[in-house]
Amino acid sequence: MKIIKNKTLDLLGISSAGICLIHCVIFPLLTIIPLGLSHNHYIDLGFALIGLFAIFSIKNLNQNVKYILLSSISLILISVLLDILFHFHSPLIYVGAIGLIIGHLLNLKKHNL
């Protein structure tokens, strides 16, 4: 039962990080087209909070995986705060999203072995 819960949380983290990465890559391209879309920083914050929830909900993490996940979510949160406070869109958010995907895939691989 515990492994099923951890797999579900890993899949939630992978999905959230993947959607966040797609959002961060595709959305700036969509703002070029005059559709009246504007970037909402709170969507980025929502993705970061979902990822943070997934990280802290997973029990029995390998120390290396935990380090990857926490450093990745820290990069994302720093980038989102820079964006909210100073209107500076840092590329740290891309690195953080890729790190989250890698960390969750490593943790998911541990459960499949």
UniProtKB/TrEMBL annotation:
The keyword Disulfide bond is assigned to this record: no
Key words of the record: Membrane, Transmembrane, Transmembrane helix
Domain of life: Bacteria
Pfam families given in the database record: MerC
Molecular function via GO: mercury ion transmembrane transporter activity
Segments crossing the lipid bilayer: 12-35, 41-58, 67-86, 92-108
Gene Ontology cellular component annotations, sorted alphabetically: membrane
Descriptive protein name: MerC mercury resistance protein
Native species: Moheibacter sediminis
